[in-house]
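User: Please check token order:
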Amino acid sequence: MGVAIRTAGEGDRELIVRLLDDAFQDDPVSGWVFPDTADRRAKHPALMAAFTGIVLAAGRIDVTEDGSACALWLPVPADEGHGDGDAGDDEGPAQVREAVDPDNERIEEIGRLTAAVHPAGRAHEYLWMIGVAPGRQGEGLGTALIEAVLDRCDREGVPAYLEASNARSRALYERLGFEPAGPALHLPDGPAMWPMWREPRPHLPA
């Protein structure tokens, strides 16, 4: 049975934020940004809300019909990299930090670190985040969301890029054709992230 997927709109904002918050509460990178558990529970939703707002405005969010999984994609032009704001906006990470938690330097730092390793020079689709409800992980929902966009990338000859935030997701992305795009990004006193790139595969007409 296929997974029903639709494009999220403004009316889905709260659903997407709640889904991302639940999915990433125990993620190593979220734990690095908010080391204190109580602080993370209090402020993490605002960070997910900031990301959701950026992608609703400048990209595309796909969500399963049952609201159990979502994927946030940004199109990146050939002449731009990406920051945690609009693509290529150097003030983006600082703006996100100011909106979420001005005293937390790591919110801005992770934006600048990921922007620094983001490939430039070729237009591509950037999978910023993908979240699956904790009780629904392992059902293939994330794979279905990603493959829907990768099929389009293959038809249009467009590469895709992401940063894997844990070993499990990295293995999934490798199965979908992503390969390392340079060395791992080691967050200061924290976990690693793995930049990954996927070249479009030849598309065979039906």
In short: Residues 82-88 have pLDDT under 50 and may be disordered. DSSP finds seven helices and eight strands in the chain. The helical segments are 13-24, 28-33, 37-58, 92-100, 105-117, 141-156, 167-175. The first helix runs from residue 13 to 24.
